[in-house]
What we know:
Largest sheet: 9 strands, mixed
Shape: globular
CATH topology: DHBP synthase
Order of helices and strands: HEEHEHEEHEHEEE
Distance between the termini: 29 Å
CATH superfamily: DHBP synthase
Number of helices: 5
Number of domains: 1
Structural class: alpha/beta
Oligomer: single chain
Radius of gyration: 16 Å
CATH class: Alpha Beta
Number of strands: 9
Amino acid sequence: MSNVNISEEIIRTNEYLKKGQIILYPTDTVWGIGCDATNTSAINRIFDIKKRSVNKSFLILLDEPEKLSLYVEHIPLIAWDLIEQANRPTTFIYSGVKNLPSSLMASDGTIAIRIVRNEFCKKLISLFGKPIVSTSANLSGEPTPMRYQDISDNLKSRMDYIVNPQIGNISDVKPSTIIRFIDDYNFEIVRD
């Protein structure tokens, strides 16, 4: 982590999230644009920054599987095993969303949620106390930047806060696996 104090960076980033501002931060996959997942105006700003259709939803990050029940009506029984067994970052698509703005949901009413293992994200979400939006740090339709250096200066200039790039020790530089639940026992892999 070089000489950057991760605890100070988490506290500083949390202050921006609490004010409803937009952050650029390292996730457990790629650098992401994020905000408070319960703040509709901040979510709408990200749609605007990315020039993304409001018909395309964002995923949210949580720090602990136990918090899923705060945002999902019914967690499929198989979800617990899949979350536990995932050996790389995996995003799960759930039905029955609650306590989240409709702008985060896909047109079919589902929400994509990933439980992070990355130390920075996990501690930030824990301190913030709410889920954080995560979307790749690029304009809609452009390639996903795999490293901080690949993110456009134009995009960086639209952020309220950029986490110190020295913290970005991303372990799995590629988008997450995506799994959609069909029912309590069945699922499909949307992206491997």
